[in-house]
Amino acid sequence: MYYIGIDLGGTNTAGGIVNEKGELICKKSVPTDAKDTENLVKNIGGVINSLCEENGFSQNDIKAVGIGVPGTVDSKTGTVVYANNIKMDHFPIVEKLKAYTDIPVYISNDANVAALGEAVAGGAKGYDSVVVVTLGTGVGGGIILDNKIWEGYMCAGAEIGHMVIEVDGEDCTCGRKGCWESYSSATALIRDTKRAITKNPDSLMCKLSKEEGKVSGKTAFLAAKIGDKAAQEVVDRYIKYLAEGIANVINLLAPKCVLIGGGISYEGDNLLIPLKEAVRPLQYGGDLVDHAEIKLCTLGNDAGIIGAAMLGR
Amino acid sequence: MYYIGIDLGGTNTAGGIVNEKGELICKKSVPTDAKDTENLVKNIGGVINSLCEENGFSQNDIKAVGIGVPGTVDSKTGTVVYANNIKMDHFPIVEKLKAYTDIPVYISNDANVAALGEAVAGGAKGYDSVVVVTLGTGVGGGIILDNKIWEGYMCAGAEIGHMVIEVDGEDCTCGRKGCWESYSSATALIRDTKRAITKNPDSLMCKLSKEEGKVSGKTAFLAAKIGDKAAQEVVDRYIKYLAEGIANVINLLAPKCVLIGGGISYEGDNLLIPLKEAVRPLQYGGDLVDHAEIKLCTLGNDAGIIGAAMLGR
Fold first, then answer.
1. Quick check: A166 and B163 CB within 8 A?
2. CB within 8 A of B239, min separation 6: which ones?
3. Do B164 and A248 touch (CB under 8 A)?
4. Chain A residue with minimal CA distance to B257?
5. Which residues of B are less than 8 Å from A236 in CB distance?
6. From the first residue on, what is the mean pLDDT of each consecutive set of 10 residues in chain B (313 residues)?
């Protein structure tokens, strides 16, 4: 049996056909009409139909369609409660799609769906409980327990970036102070790199950022690798706070695997090796207990399509 | 159908017969033989048999026996991995009990079991996802998702007190610094009350503690109620940190209910009203989202028996 996954973004609507194992067979992308929701739905219907027609599938071959939505959803009623980027407010997307397909349709939040994709077929394949931590503009992610997305009451769960790890600490975009996101997002790393550059105008970090024309999430990691001491301090502090948050998640939920994704995860072993080292002593029970493995996401942009497809499995 | 729950403590082994609704029908308690595990098991068997005989139940009336164990358990294999108080190390308690009863036996950690009791028949009756936070010597608790205990990998989950809310903050007994427990346990409240007394030797707190002969978790709450400003500061700070931790749990898991138990919870509305007020602005999504209800535990010491009984439901 096969499944269709739709990764509904503010810019593009990407879809794919996925098999029972979570392997992506084929994919297709069209622009999202973010201004006209009726047309947006019609285009999703179009993606579903063309994926089948162009790849020799009949709609009977497809058990379910899943959609990852960039916003708050009520998965039980198939309603997008609120999605700013695509202008949806209590929009019954599942009902609307019935005009275009007879295949059952499921929805969930896009971050949750991507986490499910990584758990089923990506970096955490084979683990039944996984927390995915995405280090990008913010710190997002998803919680997979017993192979299912944990959505929480009103589908409001897994706002893992908005766990305070320093009371009265750095300002967070959410209004709290000291959220994990305000230390471990790429945005926070860039802020801290800029601060360190101001304090250390002769550092390699400063030189590299001038050459690149900007400070990025890579600046401190790159300068530290070459031996810049001030940059190493930025990286060490970044990893320290990241480790505190990951240890919190492990102590609270004891997942079998914590997966790291998002832009900063492309640092690979430069991030992962010191991170594992830093998390170990912070885990409750220390060496007496087997703790979660910490690994990297592997599916990149396909996680959303694959995870969405797996909603109906 | 009926169930037997056993709350296995370091001092007493308390058992009870519980009906399908989680109502306690009758109970019995015997001393725990913490030095002789074989005898301890025999005594559990004795409690099971006398509960039935003395109350007119046949073993056929009992669907399952559940045991809450004060330690780390492997619920799948029925083994107590480690329990310091009752000297168990990889002890196959479920297997051993087969010598005394034919009723199926289930085990889980005692804090998890008490949380299940509160979720099924106590303060969170009717809520399918509940996080119980116990404010005692430490900060403990349990996580109930879809009406079941979330035990986590190696049954190591729900160490909710060991979530850092202040990086490099107060020393915690676990070895980390700044754990929620090191701000929100009764132990932490007593420490902070003592510090405030040292700074404010003329305060009412100081007078009350001298009269009582000690500083307790009640001292600051009582003095604050009478109007002691220094005590009010202690209480305000205690509630602030408690609120930060509860908001973290809500943002991460979005349970339908957060239940507060343990010694400090006996402050009742003096705790609950300002706590709810403090949590509200810290919840992600603010007033746009319906958030968890915050309530108090209601079963007291019976939570362990009732929750244990519900393991087999």
1. no
2. B271, B274, B275, B278
3. yes
4. A153
5. none
6. 96 97 97 95 97 96 97 93 89 97 96 96 97 95 95 87 97 95 97 98 96 96 97 98 98 97 96 97 84 96 97 92
